Every structure is written in structure tokens, then in C-alpha cells.
């Protein structure tokens, strides 16, 4: 086999398993009534982008992704900074703790949160035990529970993305800033944080992309009370048998996600250039 053949094999794989399904999804989205009838039309795009019902789902999905991403960043950056600078011999133990959610199946993780957040779960029992509440709080099957579950699942992606950059930073730059009279906070804001923005942007892209497309955790912990596109797409295709609208909503989710994801590195690069 020559070199061209070896190069063509991965390209064919990409076309067959990545580009092909997207093209098929696009083709279905440009019809109405699929699979019962196949009529070329843009009616489903008009319905998805003009109907306030579907716009509400799109807005909630983007807000959900932004919330999960922001919380992962606020929790993940300090932890990654501590691991990179102060963990020492505890680094391996902390790293294992970070990636531990990825080693457990999503159903097992969700059952754990169900036991914790249930009306007779550990959290409600603890609150009643210390006298803060007299009746169980409705924590499970709420947007709060869905957000917490997704943060637990996706936090490792944020921490690992940031720590990989922080661990490789040239510490002499920070020392030079201190020698010029800059305090600890100023060194962090003017030196450390800008230099680590590449890791922050990668982490934000990963977390946001995964959160807006999540299905199982929001459904099991949110109980259908949070209006996200992924459950809606599933309902349109499997329950209502409206593949055209389901494909259209999938394309809208894809374009919205790609647009937001693509804007993050651009904003970071623009900030660094200024």
C-alpha cells in the first residue's frame, strides 16, 4: 500500500462516520413530513426559528450550557491552580479525585444524586436534623439538580484543560512581576490569568458543547421540568414521529453550539492581542 492509500483511509472514515450523518441530518431537515412523506421545504426551519415555543427551548438550552460552563470555571480554576502550584506529593491523589466522575457510569452517578437530593435523601434528612427545615425540600427534579449533576460530570474537563496550561507556565514571569513591585493579586490578574486563558477557553468550549447536548442527566435529575433541546428532539423523533422537525432542531442546536464554541477562542485571541 502506498502513502496515498494510508492517507485516504482516515479521510474515508471521517466522511463515512462524521460528515455522512451530518449531511443526512441536513437533508432530512430540509423536508416536511419525513419519514411518512418527503416534501422539500424550509417550513420546519421557519417553525423552529419563529415559534416562541421552540425559541424558548433554544434560549433555555444556551442558558443551561452557559450556567454549567460558568460554574465549572469558577470551581475548576481555583482547584487547578492549587494542584499546579501547591499540591506537591498529593498531586496524584487529587488528580484521581478529579477524574473519578469519568470512571463511573452516568446512570450510577445520577442514582447517587437521586439518593442525595430525594425528599427522603441525605440532604433533606440533614437539613431537618439540624433544624433548618421541618418539611422536605423539593430539590430533585428541578433545574438546580440538573445543573449540579452536569457540573459534577463536566468539571474534570475544565480542571484538566486549565491545569495542563498552568503546569507549563514559565514561573520566572511571575517572579519578574513580583520583583517589580506587583502584589500577589496583581501578578495573578496581569500575568497568570492571561497566560492561562488558552486552557480556560479549551475548558469552556468542551464543557459548553457537552452540556447543551446532554440528555440523560438533565432528564433524570430535572424530571422534565427544564426545557432543553435534546429531550425535545428525542420526543419529536420517537414520540411524535416528526423526523423533519427533529432534524431541524438538531441542526439549530449544532449551529448554535458551533457558533458559541467558535467565538470563545476568537474572543480570547482578541483580548490577548489588545
Order of helices and strands: HEEHHHHHHHHHHHH
Number of helices: 13
Instruction: Write out the CATH superfamily name.
Output: MetI-like
Strand order, main sheet: write it out. Answer: 1-2
Report the radius of gyration as a whole number of Å: 23 Å
- What is the averaged pLDDT score? 85
Given this structure, which CATH class is correct? Answer: Mainly Alpha
Instruction: Profile the largest sheet.
Output: 2 strands, antiparallel
Q: Which outline best applies?
A: globular
Tell me the span between the first and last alpha carbons.
50 Å
Summed up, the domain count is 1
Topology:
Elements lengths: L2 H27 L1 E2 L6 E2 L2 H8 L1 H35 L4 H9 L6 H12 L4 H8 L13 H24 L4 H9 L4 H12 L1 H16 L3 H7 L6 H11 L3 H31 L1
Antiparallel strand pairs: 1-2
Please describe the structure with a list of short key phrases separated by commas or semicolons.
274 residues, mainly alpha, MetI-like fold, two-stranded antiparallel ribbon, globular
Amino acid at each position: 500500500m502506498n502513502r496515498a492509500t494510508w492517507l485516504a483511509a482516515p479521510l474515508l472514515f471521517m466522511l463515512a462516520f462524521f460528515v455522512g450523518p451530518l449531511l443526512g441530518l441536513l437533508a432530512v431537515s430540509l423536508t416536511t413530513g419525513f419519514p411518512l412523506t418527503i416534501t422539500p421545504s424550509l417550513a420546519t426551519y421557519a417553525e423552529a426559528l419563529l415559534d416562541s415555543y421552540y425559541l424558548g427551548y433554544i434560549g433555555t438550552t444556551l442558558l443551561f450550557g452557559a450556567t454549567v460552563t460558568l460554574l465549572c470555571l469558577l470551581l475548576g480554576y481555583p482547584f487547578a491552580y492549587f494542584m499546579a502550584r501547591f499540591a506537591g506529593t498529593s498531586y496524584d491523589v487529587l488528580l484521581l479525585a478529579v477524574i473519578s466522575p469519568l470512571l463511573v457510569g452516568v446512570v450510577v452517578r445520577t442514582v447517587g444524586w437521586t439518593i442525595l437530593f430525594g425528599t427522603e435523601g441525605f440532604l433533606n434528612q440533614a437539613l431537618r436534623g439540624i433544624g433548618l427545615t421541618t418539611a422536605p425540600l423539593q430539590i430533585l427534579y428541578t433545574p438546580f439538580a440538573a445543573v449540579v449533576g452536569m457540573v459534577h460530570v463536566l468539571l474534570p474537563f475544565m480542571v484538566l484543560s486549565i491545569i495542563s496550561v498552568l503546569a507549563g507556565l514559565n514561573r520566572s514571569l511571575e517572579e519578574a512581576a513580583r520583583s517589580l513591585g506587583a502584589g500577589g493579586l496583581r501578578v495573578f490578574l496581569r500575568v497568570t490569568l492571561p497566560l492561562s486563558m488558552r486552557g480556560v477557553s479549551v475548558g469552556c468550549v468542551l464543557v459548553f458543547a457537552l452540556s447543551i447536548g446532554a440528555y440523560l442527566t438533565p432528564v433524570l435529575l430535572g424530571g422534565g421540568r427544564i426545557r432543553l433541546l435534546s429531550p425535545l428532539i428525542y420526543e419529536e423523533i420517537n414520540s411524535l414521529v416528526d423526523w423533519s422537525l427533529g432534524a431541524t432542531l438538531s441542526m439549530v442546536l449544532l449551529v448554535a453550539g458551533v457558533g458559541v464554541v467558535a467565538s470563545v477562542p476568537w474572543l480570547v485571541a482578541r483580548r490577548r492581542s489588545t
